[in-house]
Design a protein that fits this description.
heterodimer, A: alpha+beta, PH-domain like, 2 domains, four-stranded antiparallel beta sheet, three-stranded antiparallel beta sheet, about 45% helix, about 25% strand, disordered N terminus, B: alpha+beta, 14 helices, 20 strands
C-alpha cells in the first residue's frame, strides 16, 4: 500500500492538543452579498405583485369572478413570502462566515441549523470561480471547491469580493499539498 | 499536475501480435507502433451483440405496444413481417461491419488511442496514468475464442470510458499489467517512493477467497427478499382472495362467471391461484439463485502485489481489479436473513466515477465478496485495511436525543395529524392503519437507535448502523475528503451535534453525538488527513 515513510513518528496526540475548529477566527463575506440577495428577493416579490395587480385591474380581458376573489389572498401570500425571505436573508446571510487555515478551508453557516464544514486543501481536485450577471454587477464571486467526494458535496463560499476570491484561489492553487500529486 | 511526457518516440513499425492468429508467446509486446491497428474479425460479433443490446434497451418501452399489436393485428401473418425483419437484421449486420471497419486503435508511448464511429467519429487518447481501472471481460460469444474485451476506466465522466473490443487474452493481461504499473509509477512520483512492482502479474498472485456453489446459493437466497416476503404473506392469500371476491360480488360481479365454468367451485379456483403464486415465488427464488450463480460462479478473489482481482462468471467471465490503496471504505453488510445464516457481504468501495446507477451488487466501484462467514469478513476487512478490527469492539452509542427527536418532533405530529383526520372522518380502519404504521416506524427508529454506534482507534473509524440487519463501515481516518459538523439551535442547547464525513466513495453520517465527542472526532479526522498528507488513491 503505502511506502514505509522515513520520517515516521507516532507520538500520542490528545484531542485537546489538536487545532480546534471551534476557537477559530472567521471572516465575514462581503456585506454586499446580503444586500444583493435582499434586492433580488425584493425585485422578484414586487414584480410578482405588480404582475398580479396588472392582471387583476386590466380591462382588456374579463376574468372569472372566483379567480378575482382569490386576488387578495394571493397578494397577501406573495407579500408575506417576500417579507419572510427578506427577513431570512437579513438574519441568515451574516451567519455565513469562512476561515482559511494553512491546510484547509472552513465554512460556518446556518441560522437555525448551523453547520461547520471543513475542506482540507490536499483533497481538492479543482477550483472554480463562478460569477453570475448580478454577481458581476455587484463585484462578487463564488468560490467552488471540488473534492473527490462528488458534485453533491461541492464546498462553496458565496459572496466574496472578486479580489479576495482570486487571492483565495491563488492560495489554494499554489498550495504545496495540491501540487504534490 | 505534472504529466508523464511521452518519452523519445521509439520508431518501431514492427507490428506485434495483437489480434492476428499467431500463437501468443510469454512476452507479448504492448506497443503497437505508429500504425493504426484493426481489431480481430471476431470483433464483428461484439458489435452485432452490442447493437442488439442497444435495440433491446431502446425497444423495451415499445414492447407493450408491440405485444398489443401482435394480438390485435396479427403482424406475423402480414406479408411485410418477414421482409422488415430481414431488413432490420441486415441493418444490424451492416452496422456491425461498418463499426468494425471504422474502429482503429494503437497503443504506444504509454497512451491508448482509439478511433471509432462511422458518422459520429470519436478519437480517444488516454494516457496510461489517467486510467483508473482496467477490466477484462469475456462475453459468452468470446468464450470459445482466445479474445477478450479490455475496458479502460478513467476517473472522469462516464463518456470517457473506452474499450478495446477484441484483443487476445494474453495481450489484454499484459496491457493491464503495464497500465497499472504505469499508474502506480505516476502515483509514486510524489513524496512516496513506492517500489515499482514488476510486470509479472501472475507470479505472486495469491488467492484470498473463493466461493463455493453452496455459498452462492445462500447468496442468491439472502439477496432477493421479495419472494420471501411474498412467502410470508402466503397464508393470507386465501383470505385476501376471498375478500377480493366478495368485494367484486358486491359490485355485482361473479368471478365464477368470469372463469366461465360451473364445474369448478370458487374455493377450488382460489386454490389453483394459490398454487400458481407458490410456483411463481419458487421460480423467483430460483431466478435469484440462478442470477447469483451466473454472476459469481467460480468466484475467486486474489491479490497480486497491491491489487485485488476478482474473477467470476458462468457465461460471461469478468475480471475486475482494484488497487488496495484505493479502497476508501470496507463495508460489511448483514441483513436479517444473513444474520440467521451467519453470513455477511463484504464490499470494498473505491471512488465513484461519473454518474453510475447505483446497483448495489454490480456497481463497478464496489468489489463484492458475496456471503462470507463473519470470521472471513473480519479477515477480509483486515486484509484491505491492515490493523483494523471490526468486532469484537465496543461501540459508543449515539445519544437518546435521536429517539426523542425522531419520535416526538418528527413522528408524533404527523401521526397525530393523520389520526385526527381519520377520527374526524370516522374512518376507523384508517385510524387503525395510522396506528399500525406509527408502531412500525417507532420500532424502526428504536432499532436504528440501538444499532447506531461508532468507534475509533489509531487508524480507523468504525461505524455501525442498521435496523434489523447490521452494517459495519470501516474507514481509514486519513481518507477524508471533507467533513461537516451540523447542529440545530435545539441541539446546541443540549450539547449534541451530528457529523457527516465525505469520502470519495460516498458520505457517512453519525448523528446526535455528544457535542464534545463530535468536535473531537472532527478535529481528529482533519488532523489525520492533513498531517499525514497521504494520498487517498
Amino acid at each position: 500500500m503505502d511506502a514505509p515513510e522515513t520520517d515516521y513518528h507516532n507520538a500520542p496526540v490528545t484531542t485537546a492538543q489538536l487545532p480546534d475548529l471551534w476557537t477559530l477566527e472567521t471572516e465575514a463575506l462581503s456585506p454586499r452579498y446580503r444586500w444583493l440577495n435582499m434586492l433580488i428577493v425584493a425585485v422578484i416579490g414586487c414584480g410578482l405583485l405588480a404582475l398580479l395587480s396588472i392582471v387583476r385591474y386590466q380591462t382588456l380581458l374579463s376574468l372569472p369572478a372566483n379567480l378575482l376573489a382569490t386576488y387578495p389572498f394571493v397578494v397577501t401570500a406573495v407579500a408575506v413570502g417576500t417579507v419572510w425571505a427578506l427577513a431570512y436573508h437579513f438574519l441568515a446571510d451574516p451567519c455565513i462566515r469562512f476561515a482559511l487555515r494553512e491546510q484547509d478551508l472552513v465554512l460556518h453557516k446556518g441560522l437555525i441549523f448551523k453547520s461547520i464544514g471543513c475542506q482540507p486543501v490536499l483533497r481538492i481536485q479543482h477550483i472554480e470561480l463562478k460569477r453570475g450577471p448580478l454577481e458581476r454587477l455587484a463585484g462578487l464571486a463564488r468560490l467552488q471547491v471540488f473534492s473527490a467526494g462528488g458534485a453533491v458535496h461541492t464546498f462553496e463560499i458565496p459572496g466574496l469580493p472578486v479580489v479576495q476570491a482570486q487571492k483565495l484561489r491563488q492560495f489554494i492553487l499554489s498550495h504545496k499539498e495540491l501540487n504534490a500529486k | 499536475m505534472s504529466i508523464n511526457n511521452p518519452q523519445d518516440e521509439p520508431a518501431n513499425d514492427v507490428l506485434p501480435d495483437v489480434g492476428s492468429d499467431v500463437s501468443p508467446t510469454d512476452t507479448v509486446q504492448i506497443d503497437t507502433g505508429r500504425q493504426w491497428r484493426r481489431l480481430a474479425p471476431v470483433a464483428i460479433i461484439y458489435f452485432v451483440a452490442s447493437s442488439l443490446k442497444k435495440l433491446v434497451q431502446f425497444g423495451l418501452y415499445a414492447i407493450p405496444a408491440i405485444a398489443i399489436s401482435f394480438q390485435t393485428t396479427s403482424i406475423s401473418q402480414s406479408r411485410w413481417f418477414l421482409p422488415v425483419l430481414g431488413v432490420v437484421c441486415a441493418l444490424i449486420i451492416v452496422n456491425a461491419l461498418l463499426d468494425y471497419l471504422f474502429y482503429q486503435f494503437r497503443v504506444r508511448n504509454s497512451h491508448v488511442e482509439i478511433k471509432s464511429g462511422v458518422f459520429h467519429r470519436r478519437h480517444i487518447n488516454l494516457p496510461f496514468w489517467r486510467i483508473q481501472n482496467v477490466k477484462i471481460e469475456r462475453p459468452v460469444y468470446y468464450r470459445l475464442s482466445r479474445f477478450a474485451v479490455v475496458i479502460l476506466d478513467t476517473a472522469g465522466s462516464a463518456n470517457e470510458e473506452a474499450s478495446i473490443v477484441a484483443v487476445t487474452r494474453d495481450y489484454a493481461a499484459q496491457l493491464r499489467a503495464q497500465i497499472l504499473n504505469e499508474r502506480s509509477d505516476y502515483l509514486a512520483q510524489g513524496e512516496m517512493s513506492e517500489p515499482t512492482p514488476t510486470a509479472t502479474p501472475a507470479a505472486d498472485e495469491r488467492i484470498i477467497n473463493t466461493r463455493s456453489i453452496k455459498d452462492l446459493v445462500l447468496h442468491g437466497i439472502t439477496n432477493n427478499r421479495v419472494w420471501i416476503l411474498l412467502g410470508a404473506m402466503a397464508p393470507f392469500f386465501d383470505e385476501l382472495a376471498d375478500m377480493a371476491g366478495s368485494y367484486l360480488g358486491r359490485q355485482g360481479l361473479q368471478l365464477e362467471q368470469i372463469v366461465g365454468s360451473d364445474t369448478i367451485a370458487w374455493w377450488q379456483w382460489s386454490l389453483y391461484l394459490f398454487t400458481v403464486l407458490i410456483v411463481i415465488m419458487a421460480i423467483m427464488g430460483l431466478l435469484s439463485v440462478g442470477g447469483a450463480l451466473l454472476t459469481y460462479y467460480g468466484y475467486t478473489l486474489s491479490k497480486a502485489n497491491d491489487r485485488y482481482i476478482r474473477r467470476s462468471g458462468l457465461l460471461s467471465q469478468q475480471e475486475v481489479s482494484m488497487r488496495q490503496s484505493r479502497v476508501q471504505v470496507v463495508t460489511i453488510k448483514q441483513d436479517w436473513l444473513d444474520k440467521l445464516l451467519r453470513r455477511a457481504n463484504v464490499f470494498f468501495e473505491q471512488n465513484k466515477t461519473g454518474h453510475q446507477p447505483n446497483q448495489e451488487l454490480m456497481a463497478p466501484n464496489k468489489l463484492l465478496v458475496p456471503s462470507v462467514t463473519c470470521e472471513q469478513a473480519k479477515q477480509l476487512a483486515a486484509d484491505a485495511l491492515p490493523g483494523s478490527q471490526v468486532y469484537p469492539r465496543t461501540y459508543s452509542p449515539i445519544t437518546r436525543f435521536y429517539l426523542l427527536h425522531n419520535l416526538i418532533v418528527r413522528l408524533l405530529p404527523i401521526a397525530l395529524l393523520l389520526g385526527a383526520f381519520a377520527w374526524y372522518a370516522k374512518g376507523y380502519t384508517e385510524l387503525a392503519l395510522v396506528g399500525g404504521l406509527t408502531l412500525i416506524v417507532m420500532l424502526i427508529v428504536v432499532l436504528r437507535y440501538w444499532r447506531w454506534g461508532y468507534a475509533i482507534d489509531d487508524q480507523y473509524l468504525y461505524v455501525r448502523t442498521g435496523c434489523i440487519g447490521i452494517d459495519y463501515q470501516i474507514l481509514p481516518l486519513y481518507k477524508l475528503q471533507q467533513v461537516v459538523f451540523t447542529q440545530s439551535l435545539m441541539m446546541k442547547r443540549r450539547h449534541i451535534a451530528s457529523v457527516k464525513l465525505v469520502l470519495a466513495s460516498g458520505s457517512v453520517r453519525i448523528v446526535f453525538l455528544p457535542e464534545s465527542a463530535a468536535q473531537a472526532l472532527v478535529n481528529r479526522l482533519v488532523y489525520e488527513t492533513e498531517s499525514t498528507s497521504r494520498s487517498w488513491m
